[in-house]
Each structure stands twice: as structure tokens, then as C-alpha cells.
Amino acid sequence: MPEAEFDESKVDLSELDLSDLEKKYQVRPPKGFLEKFVVCDGTPVAPESKALILKKVLAKLFSQCGKVVRLDVPVKDGKTSGYVFVEFANPHMALNAVRHLNGKKLDVKHRLLVNKISDIEKYVLSGKVKDDFQEPEIPEFKSHGYLKSYLMDPAGRDQYLTHYNEDVAISWFKKSLQPEPVIDPRSQWTSTFMKWSPYGTYLFSMFPNGVQCWGGENFERISRFAHPGVRLIDCSPNEKFLVTLSPDPIVIPPEGHPARASFPFSPESAGHKLVIWDIQTGIAVKTFPLPQNLEHQASMPWPLIKWSFDDKYCARMGPDAIAVYDVEQDFGLLDKKLVKIPGLVDFSFAPGGVKLAANRRNAPPEAVLAYWTPEQSNKSAKVAVMHIPSRSVLRTVNMVQVSDCRLFWQQQGKYLCCCVTRHTKSKKTKYSSLQIFQLEERDIPVETIEVQDVVLTMGWEPRGKRFITVSQNDSPDVNPAYLMNNITFYDTETPKKGRGVLVPIKRWISFKTINNKFINCVKFSPKGRFVALATLREGKGAVDFFDLDFDGEKPKDQSNKVSSNAKFVVSRQFDGMTNIEWEQSGRFVAAWSSSWKHSLDNGYKIFDSTGRVLDEKSVDGFKEFQWRPRPKSLLTNSDKKKVRKTLKEYSAQFEEEDAMEANAELREQILRRKKLLQDWYTWRESIHGKLRDLHLEEHHDTGKFEVIEEMKEVVLEEKEEVVE
Fold first, then answer.
1. Backbone angles phi, psi at 639, to 5 degrees
2. Is residue 462 reached through a cis peptide bond, with omega within 30 degrees of 0 on the bond before it?
3. Coil, strand or helix: which one is 437?
């Protein structure tokens, strides 16, 4: 009898244990083999006939990150699947593709999501990714109140922060009165210092494990930024991002560690020290290592990340290059390459948007940065202005015999002053020259002002074209023991009249000079006109107040070629002064002596714009004073003109409120009168309501009333006298 055929379909293999055979004959890829592969999701779903074209486009894109060995485009049901597999020559190239192409927009409808295939395998094989989608739990929204509530103060008062010993206090500033606390002073609120965001929305405090963000009417904690050992922080101009720096490199917890789940950094951030955070979400969006030349330095140039005026671009300096990042493209490197600048020393963005003359009249302001390079190998020193994002150089100035160069921007970005320190051929004597760029003029003209002294610092009028320099004579004949500074005031020459019209002449000239002063700090009022010249040092210090638009006859020592008239107002003594800052409206200025620098006469003084002392306190262990910043005004130019026309009405209102606060008896009298007037209006409105109910209001004039006074003669007493 023939042997029956074996039917495999009738054999139940589920009961057989084949694990030992699978383990024995399992094909394992070499170690690190999967690290060369990436999977790219988000590619277009196209007909199979266009798969070859799509493959060529993607191959060209991925080739920018390294050598592509193989690229597979899966096809299903006559269409591409919306993802591809890419094999690179080595793991470094694959990692480079993840860093630079993950999140990249292929076109308007498609954004690429690039991940290492080893990461996907890791999560799939570990069972962390479930087959069924589970909707994540959305945390309950927690309101922190209105973050800009400080702007709604009826009296328009300012807030300021004082830090003394271990306490931090925030107060309302009340002119000529005792300050009113916003919140109760808090102890141990920070381990080092506090910092306001540029518009005053947030307040940041420092701790060994990171930074905490506070805000709202009661300054509740909004978020935390975990960065162990953080030392320095900075905020982007529009309060979107926070930058932190720690001397300690980021250490990633090992796989499976409990802290790994809540750790804010990815494995690619290991060893990095510089972090950019999204303030609203609290997520670390970008990390950087420190440049090798800054490692182990005692002092650190700060900030290391510099921002454009609109937060669209940020940049950092490296050896012979500037790395510019596009914020809206997930902080990707602009054009995928560095801006190569051999010998680069320093750069900075214009603090305001620049309206370039080459653009249309209604074109939006542009981001512009300036940089300088020293003399090297038969090449002169250079200062250049560059447009971002095009990276085109708009203007260049070459210089020789340059020792140093510093960039000073006018707040609106209209002018740039390059303070160039030069030396003679013998290098025994130094002097300075000022290169002033006019960025909103056609072809960006540059004016050179030669200065016999060495310019130590300078200050621009925030919204004007005037500036002040502090200089010092570097001649070898000068006794360094009695070295004192010279203060020079500059303004543009008054336009001349030509055939009935004003011919603009942008030529800066000095119209006033003050010699032999210990002044080393220039602080212009935010609104212009007033300036405070301060002496910041441990010994004797003072603040000199000047009015640059004084309405009076000009002294003989001032030039008549400019419209400015610098009037000395008053000088206030303040020994040991270390800092001075204007309040944003330009009404008040605060100076203080910080215990961080010395223990001499610690405390603060608050002056008005004319130098009158409004408040002063001596506090042992006083550390810092900070005005709370305000956002930019939302008023248009026409609105501001209306305010100026009706300024007397506003002034009368505020003067009445100031009088009420200064005199309690007068306050009660004014409030009583206002209450009587309000009671009269309420009673009259109630009468009108009753008349309306009786349908009698049409017989009464509810508009303006005319008061008619009727005079009558009344005989009070009658006497008869006999006249002889």
C-alpha cells in the first residue's frame, strides 16, 4: 500500500516550540549597521509613474547631508506610500540628515519627518509603541491671570524691583511719596539675580537647577527651565525665546532611568552648554556647544546668541564664520551653510528694523547686521554691513593701523557708529576715529570724524541723531595718575536754505566739549532731549544732568551750526555709584550702589529728568534696582499728535491726583465734591426716568439748561425823616 502524502496544512505548528532554532539561526546585522539608515515620512503620495522623478528629487536633497548609497520609494496600490528609506555611507551622515532635514518643508503641503531607523526599531521592539492609537491626555489649562495687568494702572505708574540681602521687593513708584508694594517682599526668590523680559511681561529668577519664570498680577510661577548650573540668561527682543548658559555640559540620563522621561534634552544635546528655550511652551528648541576658544575662560562675552529685531533670525559667532539660524524653519542653518568671514572679531544685529532706501517706500523694515575684521596678511581692517537673509554685503569700509573697533547702534537702527581705535606707526600713541553709517540713505553713506583722543564709550540718542562721546588723551606726556576724561556732544549740521527749500546736510559736528571730568557713563533719556552723565566708581561719584533742547540763548562755547542747545541743569553727588538706568517714559532715572561690586554706601536714589531727588534709601547689602520695562506704544503718529494737543487736560487730571495723594485733607474735600456731583447726576437721571414712565418727558427739555437770573428789589424797612 502506497505511503500517504504528508499534508502540512493539517499540522498544528502553534504547539511546537521553535524558539531555540530561531535563536540559533537568527540573522543579526553587524553592530551599527542600522545606524546608517533613516526613514523619511511626509513625502508626497504620487502615482507610480512619477516615483522615479520623486526618487531623483529626494536623492538630490539627501545628498546634501552625505553620500546616499540607496534610496527606496515603497509603492502600494499604484501609488507611493508617503515615506522612503535612505541608506547612507556611514552613521555620521545619517545623523546629519536627521539634524538638518527633520522638519524641512518640501513644498507648501509637505513637511519631511526624518528619523534614524534604529530609533524606530528601538521603540517598536521595546513595546513602548502600541498598535492602537490612544489620544493623549490634554492637561487642564491653568490661567496665570493677565500678564500685562501692570499696564492698566489708572495713574500710569511704573513698577520697579529692588534686591537687598536675600529679599526681593516689587513696588509701585509714586512721585514724592512712599512707594506702594505690588506684592509682599519674598525671601530666597533667587540664588543670584533677577531679570525682566524686554517688555516686562515675565520675570526670571535663577536657581542651581535652572530658571523659573514668573508673571501675572501676583507674580505666580508660570514655567521652569531645567538647566543645571545655569549662570547667564538672555531674552529675545520680542520675548519669544530664552537663552541659558551653564559651565556644566548636559549629561543625558541612561536609558530606562526614571529621569529620562521628563528630561528636556535629546541625546544629540549631550555635552552642550548653550540652550534656547521657547518661553510659552517651556521646550528646549535648540542647543549648542561652546566654541573651543571660550572653554575654561574666566570671563564670558554675553550674549553669545544675538537676535534680529523681529526674532526671525538668530546668530552666533564661530572661528572665521557667523552661523545664522532661521527661527521659522526650526532653527535650521540659513541656506544650510555658514557665513564665512576670515578673521571675524565681533558682530551685532541692528536693534531696530532698517528701511533700506533701495527698497520700495512701503516695504517692511529689514534685518541687518554689522561685523568687523582686523588687519591680516596685507589686508586692511574692514567694517561691513550685511543684509539678512540674503547675506549680501550692503556697505564696506576699509581701515588701516587699527587696534580695536566697537559697534554702537542707534536704537532705531538708522545709524551705526564704529568707534575705531588706531595707533601711530610707532604704536606709542593711540587715537580714535568715528565711522558713522547712515543706513536709511541711498548707498549707505559713511562719514568719518577724526578724534585726537581715545574714545572710551559713547551713547546715541535713542530716537534722534545726536550722540555723546567720552574720550581720554593717550599721549605719553600725560600723567596717568591724574588722567581725566573729555565729554563731547555731537549733532548734525542745521540744514541750509537753497532757493526757498531746505537742503539736508548730514554732517556731524561737535557743538560742546567738557574737559577734565571723571565721567565714564552716558545715559540718554529714552525719549531723548535729557541726558545723564555719570561717574561710576568706588570713590566719589556724581550725576550731571543736561537738557539738549533748552529754549534759551546759547552760550559762547556752543556752536551755532546745530540746533541743539546743551544746558547744564544740576549735578548730584552719589559716592560709590555702580549703575544708572532711566525709566522707559524718560520721566525718572535711578542710580544705585551695588554690594556685588563694593560695600560702600549701598542703596539707591531716584531723580526726575531735571535732577531733583524724589526718593533715596541706604540699605546694607543692596544688590540691584530694575525698572519694569514697558512694551512699545500702540498709538499711531496721529494719536500722539492728539495727545499733545490735549495735554493740558491730561495734565490737569494728573495734577489733581498728585495733589490728592500729597494732602489727605484736600483729598477728602475733592472726593466729597465729586460724590455730591455724582449724587446730583443720579437724582436728575431718576427724575427723568419717572417722567418717562408718566409719558411727560416730551414736555421737558432734557438737553442743556439755561440758567436765568432774575433780580428783584425788596423793601425791607421804610422810615420817614423830617428834613428841615
1. -65, -40
2. no
3. strand
Q: Which residues of 569-607 are buried (b: 16+ CB within 10 A; e: fewer)?
A: beebebebbbbbbbbbebbbbbbbbbbeeeeeebbbbbb
Residue 488, domain member (yes or no)? no
State the Cα–Cα distance between residues 316 and 272, nearest whole angstrom: 14
64: domain CATH number?
A: 3.30.70.330
Question: In the structure grid, which three cell numbers stand for residue 48, read together?
Answer: 507610480
Output DSSP code: residue 183. S
Q: Does some domain include residue 78? A: yes
pTM of the model: 0.78
Question: Mean pLDDT over residues 225-254, rounded?
Answer: 95
Using CA atoms, how far apart are residues 450 and 467, in angstroms rounded to an integer? 15
Closest CA to 106 of 70, 51, 58, 47: 58
Which 3 state secondary structure label does DSSP give 511?
Answer: strand
* Rounded Cα–Cα distance for residues 370 and 382 (Å): 11
Residue 100 CB partners (closer than 8 Å, separation 6+)? 64, 65, 332, 333, 336
Q: What is the pLDDT of residues 137-172, one digit of tens each?
A: 887 888 888 999 999 988 888 999 999 999 999 999
Domain that includes residue 105, residue range: 28-125
Pick the last residue of a domain from 108, 125, 142.
125
Answer for the pair 448, 455: CB distance below 8 angstroms, yes or no: no
| Residue 120 belongs to some domain of the structure | yes
Distance CA 220, CA 192 (A): 19
Residue labelled with grid coordinates 554689522? 370
Please list, in sequence order, all residues whose beta carbon lies within 8 angstroms of the beta carbon of residue 713, skipping any fewer than 6 positions away: none
Of 419, 344, 358, the closest CA to residue 394 belongs to: 358
CB 420 within 8 A of CB 433: yes
Rounded Cα gap, residues 296 and 460, in angstroms? 35
Q: Which of 110, 125, 140 is the last residue of a domain?
A: 125
Residue 6 lies in a domain: no
pLDDT at 35: 87
pLDDT of 343 strictly over 80: yes
Q: Count how many domains the chain has.
A: 2
> Which tens digits make up the pLDDT trace of 632-661?
888 888 888 888 888 887 777 777 777 766
Among the listed residues 198, 273, 268, the one whose alpha carbon sits nearest the alpha carbon of residue 230: 273
